[in-house]
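#structure-requests
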Amino acid sequence: MALTVQVRGLKKRYHGADRHAVDGIDIETSEGEYLVLLGPSGCGKTTLLRTIAGLEEATEGEVLIGGNVVNGLPPRARQVAMVFQSYALYPHKSVMQNIAFPLKAEKIDKGEREKKARWAAGLLGIEPLLDRKPRQLSGGERQRVALARALVREPSVFLLDEPLSNLDAKLRASARDELKQFQERVGTTTIYVTHDQAEAMGLGDRIAVMYEGRIRQIGPPREVYEDPADTFVATFLGSPPMNLIRRDGHLIGFRPENLLPAEVVSDGSSLTARLSIARIEYLSGDRHVYGTLHGIGEGTRVIARLPATVTVPLEDGDEREFSIQERHLRFFDAESGEQTAPQPVRA
Protein backbone atom coordinates (compact mmCIF):
# COMPACT_ATOMS: atom_id res chain seq x y z
CA MET A 1 0.00 0.00 0.00
CA ALA A 2 1.39 3.41 -1.00
CA LEU A 3 1.20 6.26 1.48
CA THR A 4 1.66 10.00 1.14
CA VAL A 5 4.68 11.80 2.59
CA GLN A 6 4.36 15.33 3.90
CA VAL A 7 6.82 17.69 5.56
CA ARG A 8 5.67 20.90 7.20
CA GLY A 9 8.04 23.75 7.98
CA LEU A 10 10.91 21.29 8.21
CA LYS A 11 14.24 22.60 9.43
CA LYS A 12 17.45 20.78 10.29
CA ARG A 13 20.51 22.46 11.73
CA TYR A 14 23.57 20.53 12.81
CA HIS A 15 25.30 21.47 16.04
CA GLY A 16 27.84 24.23 15.44
CA ALA A 17 26.69 24.95 11.87
CA ASP A 18 26.22 28.59 10.84
CA ARG A 19 23.09 27.86 8.79
CA HIS A 20 20.32 25.30 8.41
CA ALA A 21 21.01 22.30 6.20
CA VAL A 22 17.25 22.17 5.57
CA ASP A 23 15.58 25.54 5.96
CA GLY A 24 11.80 25.57 6.17
CA ILE A 25 10.63 23.02 3.61
CA ASP A 26 7.00 22.19 2.82
CA ILE A 27 6.29 19.24 0.49
CA GLU A 28 3.44 16.79 0.05
CA THR A 29 3.50 13.79 -2.27
CA SER A 30 0.52 11.99 -3.70
CA GLU A 31 0.11 8.24 -3.23
CA GLY A 32 2.40 6.32 -5.58
CA GLU A 33 4.17 9.46 -6.80
CA TYR A 34 7.81 9.47 -7.95
CA LEU A 35 9.24 12.69 -6.51
CA VAL A 36 12.86 13.61 -7.30
CA LEU A 37 14.90 15.95 -5.09
CA LEU A 38 17.43 17.59 -7.42
CA GLY A 39 20.24 19.95 -6.55
CA PRO A 40 23.99 20.45 -6.24
CA SER A 41 26.12 18.84 -3.53
CA GLY A 42 25.49 20.39 -0.13
CA CYS A 43 22.02 21.74 -0.95
CA GLY A 44 20.31 19.66 1.78
CA LYS A 45 18.57 17.00 -0.31
CA THR A 46 20.15 13.99 1.45
CA THR A 47 19.58 15.59 4.86
CA LEU A 48 15.91 16.05 3.95
CA LEU A 49 15.66 12.40 2.89
CA ARG A 50 17.38 11.15 6.04
CA THR A 51 15.08 13.29 8.19
CA ILE A 52 12.02 11.77 6.49
CA ALA A 53 13.52 8.32 7.12
CA GLY A 54 14.13 9.05 10.81
CA LEU A 55 17.92 8.82 10.53
CA GLU A 56 18.16 12.51 11.42
CA GLU A 57 16.05 14.39 13.96
CA ALA A 58 14.29 17.53 12.74
CA THR A 59 15.21 20.77 14.48
CA GLU A 60 11.77 22.18 13.69
CA GLY A 61 8.70 21.10 11.77
CA GLU A 62 6.86 17.86 11.21
CA VAL A 63 7.17 14.74 9.07
CA LEU A 64 3.91 12.94 8.25
CA ILE A 65 3.58 9.54 6.56
CA GLY A 66 0.10 8.44 5.61
CA GLY A 67 -1.24 11.52 7.41
CA ASN A 68 0.35 10.56 10.73
CA VAL A 69 3.11 12.58 12.41
CA VAL A 70 6.18 10.34 12.75
CA ASN A 71 8.58 12.72 14.50
CA GLY A 72 10.26 10.72 17.22
CA LEU A 73 9.51 7.34 15.67
CA PRO A 74 12.52 5.15 14.77
CA PRO A 75 13.11 4.36 11.07
CA ARG A 76 11.69 0.84 11.38
CA ALA A 77 8.34 2.18 12.61
CA ARG A 78 7.89 4.64 9.72
CA GLN A 79 6.93 2.13 6.98
CA VAL A 80 9.82 3.36 4.80
CA ALA A 81 12.78 1.63 3.20
CA MET A 82 15.93 3.50 2.20
CA VAL A 83 18.51 2.56 -0.43
CA PHE A 84 21.86 4.27 -0.06
CA GLN A 85 24.46 5.33 -2.60
CA SER A 86 26.85 2.62 -1.35
CA TYR A 87 24.13 -0.11 -1.32
CA ALA A 88 25.58 -1.19 2.08
CA LEU A 89 25.50 -4.92 1.30
CA TYR A 90 27.07 -7.39 3.72
CA PRO A 91 30.11 -8.79 1.84
CA HIS A 92 30.22 -12.09 3.76
CA LYS A 93 26.52 -12.87 3.21
CA SER A 94 24.93 -14.33 0.08
CA VAL A 95 22.44 -12.37 -2.00
CA MET A 96 19.64 -14.39 -0.40
CA GLN A 97 20.93 -13.54 3.09
CA ASN A 98 21.34 -9.86 2.21
CA ILE A 99 17.79 -9.58 0.87
CA ALA A 100 16.28 -11.49 3.80
CA PHE A 101 18.28 -9.69 6.50
CA PRO A 102 15.61 -7.07 7.40
CA LEU A 103 13.13 -9.89 7.94
CA LYS A 104 15.56 -11.77 10.17
CA ALA A 105 15.93 -8.64 12.28
CA GLU A 106 12.13 -8.68 12.66
CA LYS A 107 12.27 -12.31 13.89
CA ILE A 108 10.33 -13.70 10.92
CA ASP A 109 10.88 -17.44 10.54
CA LYS A 110 13.38 -18.72 7.98
CA GLY A 111 10.86 -20.27 5.60
CA GLU A 112 8.83 -17.07 5.32
CA ARG A 113 12.03 -15.01 4.98
CA GLU A 114 13.23 -17.09 2.04
CA LYS A 115 9.79 -17.03 0.41
CA LYS A 116 9.66 -13.23 0.54
CA ALA A 117 13.29 -12.89 -0.56
CA ARG A 118 12.61 -15.04 -3.63
CA TRP A 119 9.51 -12.96 -4.39
CA ALA A 120 11.50 -9.70 -4.24
CA ALA A 121 14.36 -11.20 -6.25
CA GLY A 122 11.89 -12.38 -8.88
CA LEU A 123 10.45 -8.89 -9.28
CA LEU A 124 13.95 -7.56 -9.96
CA GLY A 125 15.14 -10.46 -12.11
CA ILE A 126 17.95 -11.60 -9.81
CA GLU A 127 16.75 -15.05 -8.72
CA PRO A 128 19.75 -16.76 -10.43
CA LEU A 129 22.08 -14.71 -8.22
CA LEU A 130 20.72 -15.71 -4.82
CA ASP A 131 23.69 -17.95 -3.91
CA ARG A 132 26.37 -15.44 -4.91
CA LYS A 133 28.28 -13.00 -2.70
CA PRO A 134 28.26 -9.23 -3.46
CA ARG A 135 31.86 -9.34 -4.76
CA GLN A 136 30.68 -11.68 -7.53
CA LEU A 137 28.11 -9.15 -8.79
CA SER A 138 28.27 -6.26 -11.22
CA GLY A 139 27.35 -2.75 -10.09
CA GLY A 140 23.91 -3.03 -11.64
CA GLU A 141 23.30 -6.38 -9.94
CA ARG A 142 24.30 -4.96 -6.56
CA GLN A 143 21.88 -2.12 -7.09
CA ARG A 144 19.07 -4.62 -7.72
CA VAL A 145 19.98 -6.56 -4.59
CA ALA A 146 19.78 -3.36 -2.54
CA LEU A 147 16.36 -2.61 -4.03
CA ALA A 148 15.17 -6.17 -3.33
CA ARG A 149 16.31 -5.84 0.28
CA ALA A 150 14.27 -2.64 0.56
CA LEU A 151 11.26 -4.19 -1.18
CA VAL A 152 11.16 -7.35 0.96
CA ARG A 153 9.71 -5.40 3.89
CA GLU A 154 6.88 -4.23 1.61
CA PRO A 155 7.32 -0.59 2.64
CA SER A 156 4.77 2.11 1.89
CA VAL A 157 7.53 4.56 0.92
CA PHE A 158 10.87 4.12 -0.88
CA LEU A 159 13.64 6.62 -0.14
CA LEU A 160 16.51 6.39 -2.64
CA ASP A 161 19.73 8.34 -2.12
CA GLU A 162 21.69 8.53 -5.42
CA PRO A 163 21.44 4.75 -5.96
CA LEU A 164 22.89 4.91 -9.49
CA SER A 165 25.90 7.13 -8.85
CA ASN A 166 28.38 4.24 -8.67
CA LEU A 167 27.41 2.89 -12.10
CA ASP A 168 29.08 3.81 -15.38
CA ALA A 169 27.20 6.05 -17.83
CA LYS A 170 25.87 3.27 -20.07
CA LEU A 171 24.65 1.16 -17.15
CA ARG A 172 23.08 4.19 -15.48
CA ALA A 173 20.84 4.78 -18.49
CA SER A 174 19.50 1.22 -18.49
CA ALA A 175 19.24 1.10 -14.69
CA ARG A 176 17.26 4.37 -14.74
CA ASP A 177 14.74 2.80 -17.11
CA GLU A 178 14.51 -0.32 -14.95
CA LEU A 179 13.95 1.77 -11.83
CA LYS A 180 11.10 3.67 -13.45
CA GLN A 181 9.42 0.49 -14.68
CA PHE A 182 9.90 -1.17 -11.29
CA GLN A 183 8.32 1.75 -9.43
CA GLU A 184 5.36 1.80 -11.80
CA ARG A 185 4.84 -1.95 -11.24
CA VAL A 186 4.90 -1.83 -7.44
CA GLY A 187 3.21 1.59 -7.19
CA THR A 188 5.09 2.60 -4.03
CA THR A 189 5.52 6.28 -3.22
CA THR A 190 9.16 7.07 -3.99
CA ILE A 191 11.40 10.00 -3.10
CA TYR A 192 14.66 9.95 -5.02
CA VAL A 193 17.73 12.13 -4.43
CA THR A 194 20.12 13.03 -7.25
CA HIS A 195 22.37 15.79 -8.56
CA ASP A 196 22.00 14.37 -12.09
CA GLN A 197 19.41 16.28 -14.10
CA ALA A 198 19.03 13.50 -16.69
CA GLU A 199 17.97 11.14 -13.89
CA ALA A 200 15.58 13.76 -12.52
CA MET A 201 13.98 14.48 -15.89
CA GLY A 202 13.71 10.79 -16.77
CA LEU A 203 12.38 9.48 -13.46
CA GLY A 204 10.32 12.11 -11.71
CA ASP A 205 6.58 12.67 -11.88
CA ARG A 206 7.64 15.92 -10.23
CA ILE A 207 11.03 17.51 -9.55
CA ALA A 208 11.86 19.60 -6.48
CA VAL A 209 14.92 21.73 -7.23
CA MET A 210 16.85 22.50 -4.04
CA TYR A 211 19.53 25.05 -3.22
CA GLU A 212 20.93 26.16 0.15
CA GLY A 213 18.43 24.09 2.11
CA ARG A 214 15.33 25.40 0.33
CA ILE A 215 13.12 24.33 -2.53
CA ARG A 216 13.41 26.81 -5.36
CA GLN A 217 10.76 25.18 -7.57
CA ILE A 218 8.65 22.04 -7.66
CA GLY A 219 6.63 20.74 -10.58
CA PRO A 220 6.56 18.32 -13.53
CA PRO A 221 9.94 18.01 -15.29
CA ARG A 222 8.89 19.77 -18.49
CA GLU A 223 7.30 22.66 -16.59
CA VAL A 224 10.39 23.22 -14.42
CA TYR A 225 12.65 23.08 -17.50
CA GLU A 226 10.60 25.34 -19.75
CA ASP A 227 9.32 27.79 -17.15
CA PRO A 228 11.97 28.13 -14.39
CA ALA A 229 10.97 30.07 -11.31
CA ASP A 230 14.30 31.86 -11.01
CA THR A 231 17.77 32.16 -12.51
CA PHE A 232 19.18 29.39 -10.30
CA VAL A 233 16.71 26.85 -11.69
CA ALA A 234 17.20 28.26 -15.20
CA THR A 235 20.96 27.75 -15.13
CA PHE A 236 21.13 24.57 -13.01
CA LEU A 237 18.70 22.64 -15.19
CA GLY A 238 19.70 22.14 -18.81
CA SER A 239 22.89 21.17 -20.61
CA PRO A 240 23.97 23.64 -21.84
CA PRO A 241 22.14 25.87 -19.33
CA MET A 242 19.72 28.67 -20.17
CA ASN A 243 21.31 31.75 -21.73
CA LEU A 244 20.81 34.94 -19.70
CA ILE A 245 21.33 38.42 -21.09
CA ARG A 246 20.95 41.71 -19.22
CA ARG A 247 18.78 44.39 -20.75
CA ASP A 248 16.94 47.44 -19.39
CA GLY A 249 17.28 46.45 -15.73
CA HIS A 250 16.11 42.86 -16.14
CA LEU A 251 17.42 39.54 -17.40
CA ILE A 252 16.15 37.80 -20.51
CA GLY A 253 16.52 34.02 -20.62
CA PHE A 254 16.22 31.50 -23.43
CA ARG A 255 17.25 27.88 -23.87
CA PRO A 256 20.12 27.12 -26.29
CA GLU A 257 17.88 24.93 -28.46
CA ASN A 258 15.61 27.94 -29.07
CA LEU A 259 18.38 30.12 -30.54
CA LEU A 260 18.47 29.15 -34.22
CA PRO A 261 19.74 30.52 -37.54
CA ALA A 262 17.18 33.12 -38.68
CA GLU A 263 16.46 31.33 -41.95
CA VAL A 264 15.01 28.28 -40.20
CA VAL A 265 12.71 30.25 -37.86
CA SER A 266 9.41 30.79 -39.68
CA ASP A 267 7.36 32.33 -36.86
CA GLY A 268 6.88 36.05 -37.46
CA SER A 269 6.92 36.94 -33.72
CA SER A 270 10.66 36.38 -33.31
CA LEU A 271 13.59 38.34 -31.98
CA THR A 272 16.58 38.48 -34.32
CA ALA A 273 20.16 39.51 -33.55
CA ARG A 274 23.64 38.98 -34.96
CA LEU A 275 25.80 36.19 -33.56
CA SER A 276 29.57 36.30 -33.92
CA ILE A 277 30.55 32.62 -33.86
CA ALA A 278 33.66 31.83 -31.82
CA ARG A 279 33.64 28.04 -32.10
CA ILE A 280 31.44 25.06 -32.88
CA GLU A 281 31.37 21.73 -31.06
CA TYR A 282 29.86 18.54 -32.46
CA LEU A 283 28.21 16.49 -29.69
CA SER A 284 25.95 13.46 -30.20
CA GLY A 285 24.65 14.72 -33.51
CA ASP A 286 24.01 18.24 -32.21
CA ARG A 287 26.10 21.32 -32.89
CA HIS A 288 26.86 23.60 -29.95
CA VAL A 289 27.55 27.05 -31.32
CA TYR A 290 29.42 29.42 -28.98
CA GLY A 291 29.43 33.09 -29.79
CA THR A 292 28.75 36.71 -28.89
CA LEU A 293 25.32 38.22 -29.41
CA HIS A 294 24.93 41.73 -30.83
CA GLY A 295 21.70 43.73 -30.98
CA ILE A 296 20.25 42.54 -27.68
CA GLY A 297 22.37 42.24 -24.57
CA GLU A 298 25.29 43.75 -26.46
CA GLY A 299 28.41 41.59 -26.26
CA THR A 300 26.82 38.74 -24.29
CA ARG A 301 28.33 35.28 -24.65
CA VAL A 302 25.66 32.71 -25.54
CA ILE A 303 25.31 29.10 -26.69
CA ALA A 304 23.02 27.80 -29.43
CA ARG A 305 22.27 24.07 -29.65
CA LEU A 306 21.40 23.03 -33.18
CA PRO A 307 19.92 19.57 -33.82
CA ALA A 308 21.09 17.46 -36.76
CA THR A 309 17.96 18.50 -38.67
CA VAL A 310 19.29 22.07 -38.89
CA THR A 311 21.76 21.77 -41.75
CA VAL A 312 22.64 25.46 -42.23
CA PRO A 313 26.43 25.59 -42.89
CA LEU A 314 28.30 27.47 -40.17
CA GLU A 315 32.01 28.02 -39.53
CA ASP A 316 34.15 29.44 -36.73
CA GLY A 317 34.44 33.19 -37.26
CA ASP A 318 31.12 33.56 -39.12
CA GLU A 319 28.73 36.37 -38.23
CA ARG A 320 25.15 35.32 -38.84
CA GLU A 321 21.64 36.34 -37.89
CA PHE A 322 20.02 34.11 -35.26
CA SER A 323 16.43 34.27 -34.02
CA ILE A 324 14.44 33.31 -30.93
CA GLN A 325 10.69 32.91 -31.01
CA GLU A 326 9.26 35.33 -28.46
CA ARG A 327 7.21 32.57 -26.81
CA HIS A 328 10.51 31.00 -25.70
CA LEU A 329 11.76 34.13 -23.89
CA ARG A 330 11.66 34.25 -20.09
CA PHE A 331 12.18 37.39 -17.99
CA PHE A 332 13.82 37.62 -14.58
CA ASP A 333 14.37 40.35 -12.03
CA ALA A 334 18.04 41.37 -12.16
CA GLU A 335 18.35 41.59 -8.35
CA SER A 336 16.20 38.76 -6.94
CA GLY A 337 16.57 36.46 -9.94
CA GLU A 338 12.87 35.59 -9.77
CA GLN A 339 10.86 35.24 -12.97
CA THR A 340 8.74 38.28 -13.83
CA ALA A 341 6.03 39.14 -16.35
CA PRO A 342 7.09 39.36 -20.01
CA GLN A 343 8.62 42.64 -21.18
CA PRO A 344 8.57 44.24 -24.63
CA VAL A 345 11.84 43.43 -26.42
CA ARG A 346 13.10 44.58 -29.76
CA ALA A 347 16.57 44.23 -31.26
